[in-house]
């Protein structure tokens, strides 16, 4: 595995790798867990080489968010990627990504607006901007993202369509199902922030979501099921529910009733100062 942190050598390495066939990119912010490694394994099935980027992107963190304390463990991450047979680790410095004078922002309207977009103003501009740059830097044929960040995936797909990024004729942006711990909690680098007590209580999130979906499928009103979910979270140590919404799976428009169209329950809630997100098919 070659590790590169500047653009010029990156272009040389990418040019050589692409001679062997399709190149897949797995963008990450590091602190890798089984969820990320699943993305790498899926990417390996579809490409001659896999590139992983690790970049803790300052532009997607709000002023009061966890940029400084976001876990950074480059040596351990690098060893994991090497063991998975990754060909290229692209780990740009902040200066390589956003040189002096950098002034361009990408904003995807509509799908970015509600849910995490409302709770974290500017977050999806930061995500869209860095992912667009990563696509232009690595020029992958395929890119893999976790479905755990369902809204992020929708934002990136919209941006790629709108800006003609990657190959439009193939489904080049691939969402991979959320990987969960044995008790059902979605894997996330931020789970490391949870105390043992909060970690045990955090299972109320997937449990409550599954219950709400079952209730609505059995005919209960969405409003009542969401109120019960919110109460269950607050009774189990969560301090705040940023949102809990049934949405159209593609447009993310809020739903007041399920139809035949694919739907998703999306939730963001805080426990012990940590913000957890999850989503499930409804
Ligand atoms: O999901 C993430 O880890 C990040 O939002 C991403 C896509 C790597 C952009 O910084």
Q: Roughly what is the average pLDDT, rounded to an integer?
A: 97
CATH topology of the largest domain: Rossmann fold
CATH class of the largest domain: Alpha Beta
Radius of gyration from the CA trace?
19 Å
- Small molecules held by this entry: pantoate
The structural class is alpha/beta
Please outline the major beta sheet.
6 strands, parallel
Q: Give the CATH H-level superfamily of the largest domain.
A: HUPs
Shape category: globular
CATH architecture assignment name of the largest domain:
3-Layer(aba) Sandwich
What's the domain count? 2
Number of strands: 9
- Read across the widest sheet, the strand sequence of neighbours is 1-4-3-2-5-6
Q: Kindly, what is the distance between the CA atoms of the first and last residues, rounded to a whole number of angstroms?
A: 40 Å
Structural description of this entry:
With 282 residues, this protein is α/β, with parallel strands linked by helices. The protein has two domains: 175 residues, 3-Layer(aba) Sandwich (Rossmann fold); 83 residues, Pantoate-beta-alanine ligase, C-terminal domain (Pantoate--beta-alanine Ligase, Chain: A,domain 2, 2-Layer Sandwich), CATH 3.30.1300. It has ten helices and nine strands. It has a six-stranded parallel sheet with strand order 1-4-3-2-5-6, sandwiched between helices. β8 and β9 form a beta hairpin. The termini are far apart. The relative contact order is 0.13. The mean pLDDT is 97. Bound molecules: pantoate (PAF). Pantoate binds next to β2 and α6. Pantoate (PAF) binds next to β2 and α6.
């Amino acid at each position: 595995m070659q590790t590169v942190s500047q653009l010029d050598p990156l272009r040389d390495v990418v040019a050589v790798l692409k001679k062997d066939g399709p190149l897949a990119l797995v963008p990450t912010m590091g602190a890798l867990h089984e969820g990320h490694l699943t993305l790498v394994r899926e990417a390996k099935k579809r490409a001659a080489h896999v590139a992983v980027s690790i970049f803790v992107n300052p532009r997607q963190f709000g002023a009061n968010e966890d940029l400084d304390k976001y876990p950074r463990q480059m040596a351990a991450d690098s060893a994991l990627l090497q063991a998975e047979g990754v060909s290229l680790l692209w780990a740009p410095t902040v200066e390589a990504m956003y040189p002096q004078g950098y002034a361009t922002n990408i904003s995807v309207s509509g799908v970015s607006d509600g849910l995490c977009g409302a709770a974290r103003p500017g977050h999806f501009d930061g995500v869209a901007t860095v992912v667009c740059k990563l696509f232009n830097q690595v020029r992958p044929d395929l890119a893999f993202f976790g479905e755990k960040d369902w809204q992020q995936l929708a934002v990136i797909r919209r941006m790629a369509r709108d800006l003609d990024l990657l190959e439009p004729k193939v489904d080049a942006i691939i969402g991979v199902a959320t990987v969960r711990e044995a008790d059902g909690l979605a894997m996330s680098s931020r789970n490391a922030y949870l105390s043992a007590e909060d970690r045990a209580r955090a299972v109320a999130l997937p449990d409550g979501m599954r219950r709400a979906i079952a209730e609505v499928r059995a005919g209960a009103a969405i409003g009542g099921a969401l109120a019960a979910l919110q109460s269950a979270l607050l009774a189990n140590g969560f301090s705040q529910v940023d949102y809990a919404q049934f949405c159209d799976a593609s447009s993310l428009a809020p739903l007041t009733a399920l139809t035949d169209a694919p739907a998703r329950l999306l939730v963001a809630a805080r426990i012990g100062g940590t913000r957890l997100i999850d989503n499930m098919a409804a």
